[in-house]
Prior knowledge:
The strands form nine sheets. This protein has a five-stranded antiparallel sheet with strand order 6-7-8-9-10. The chain contains 15 helices and 22 strands. By secondary structure, it is α+β, with helices and mostly antiparallel strands. Helix content is 38%, strand content 18%.
Amino acid sequence: MALFGRKPEETAAGLPPSVGIPGVQRDESVAPEMAAMLLTTPSTQKRIGQEEVAKAISILTRYKQGKSNLEERVVQDELWWELRHWEAIRKGTKVQADYRGPEPSSAWLFNAILNKHADAMDNYPEPVVLPRERSDEESAKTLSSVLPVILEYNDYEQTYSDGWWEKLKHGTAAYGIFWDASKENGLGDVSIRQIDLLNLFWEPGVTDIQKSRNLFLTDLVDTDLLEQQYPEHKGHLSGGAVDVKQYIYDDSVDTSGKSVVVDWYYKVRNASGRTVLHYAKFVGETLLFASENEAEYQERGWYDHELYPVVLDVMFPEKGTPVGFGYVAICKDPQLYIDKLSANILENAMMGTKKRFFASTSTNINREQFLDWNEPIVDVEGELDDRRLKEIVTQPLSDIYVTVAQMKIEEMKDTAANRDVNSGGTGSGITAAAAIAALQEAGNKASRDMISASYRAHVKINAMCIELIRQFYDEARSFRITGQVPGNVQFVEMSNAGIREQEMGVTYAAIDRYILTGEANEHDKAIIDRYHSRSEHKRRPAATYHAE
């Protein structure tokens, strides 16, 4: 990752630095005491009320309707992953309640996802921050040491693993990067967590989630806990603004005592014409918090980076949506026919190995003795011959059907890019280590491509972490890091002093030299030109990242 930021140049002695007055650029035509008077006081008028919450609920309902097909697919995909796909197959079909026949659940699809997940975790990324200019070197070095610690505090490796399961199964892993003010005993810190696609809602039709007009995150929370946290709204926190789609669980899940809490993110233009991100939280029609109602955030927005705090890692992209589809979607068809063919073959084998007979009604056979193989003698009344008792002979299936089932298995392997060599196996006749290694390297092309996409998402996650550090790390914090020497432990301090947005002051000594001598070196000329043009009063950091 690369970092940006430039420290303010020294000001002439006796001249007050412009960084002391937020939002006001230094201009020698304006006296410092007048500059303070130019500051405007943000309006304290509440902009988000019950009417705005009702509109948000209407938008959320429309967003949910727009992703109803996705929600149904995600729920069905989860059944296939859990090897419960016969529940989905039987849905809508007429099957006798007392007999369904064999329902084998082979794990070819499961094995394909398992191997891809193993490839991803073998290449777990680590952030590296690179400086953009010389003055950034120290901050970049510190961030390279601190970011892995912040990720470890958030148990990011587990989050990354959970995200990859979601990416492989459903086609998209969603990560949320937030500022949690309750961490570190109220000091606050970055929070990274994995988001369920069923709880995330965006504008239908957009392919970039950052271009959605609104973004909603929902969560089921115990109502009594909400009332403890917001006692002023006690009795008004039950229910929810929208019904959240539920998975089909093995256990019975009771949600009667829970309420749907909605986090609403949206972008608006402030008084200066800049697009800012705002945030509101509500339950039902009860508003719990709105950043637009706070004077501190009305013009600034909730997060300075102005982005929705969500990063999507997509497997196979689709048009018209920011999410994609995964391996279950492309592999469940061959998996379906593998299991159906296996069911028919097994049923035929069971019929062939189980003796059955035709018995004439005029032949009185003691059925209990006949069905009990421990009885040496079976009593029969009347004449007994082949015409009165005849065995039912089942014809075995042709080997062609076994071949067809094997062909579907090979199709599954090819479709999932999960050949035997990817799992450590080799074809017949291949014994040389170099040949096996070459086959494995060639067979991992698909995995490397998917991992590269996750690296790009990892870059965005770390970029948001740096932006939150830039905004909220006003106090210096101490981090224990691994030293250069193995086993050596070091401590570093990190604050936003070196990376936050800073005023670009003017070196007035350069101007004085130019006035006195009429000459200026290249460095002074650049400063004077910038001073006259006023084209660069501020420099907002911008970074490039490299993940290893």
